[in-house]
Amino acid sequence: MSYSIAEAARRSGLSIDTLRYYERIKLLEPPARDTAGRRAYSEEDLAWLSFLTKLRTTGMPIRRMREYATLRRRGLASAGRRKAILVEQRGAVAERIAELQSSLEILDYKIDNYERIEQGAPLPREASA
Length: 129
Fold this sequence. Notes:
The chain has five helices and three strands, in the order βααββααα. By secondary structure, the protein is mostly helical. The protein folds into two domains: 1-57, Orthogonal Bundle (Multidrug-efflux Transporter Regulator, Chain: A, Domain 2), CATH 1.10.1660.10; 59-129.
């Protein structure tokens, strides 16, 4: 099955401009073309776009994504380096999750204090901020 650029954009959640940009910076291989010369994205293209979107969601810089894409084109010989990139990114994501969890705990603590205020209960001395 193949998809037009508009359909690929809709399915991937990326804009048409982003798809063209990813192609231009070599994150995405140029897709096949239909008989009229229009881009025809494959299921494999869409799966790759989904993975790229996940990498962006983790905060991976475009520069590192480009390195990963270049290594991917080299095949199995680059598997070790690709794994290292993902392990490094996983560490950064785990650190960010820990930061967010700490922030969530503080928010929960403050919300609990405001609920006590609303119920007329006395607050601990340090909770008055």
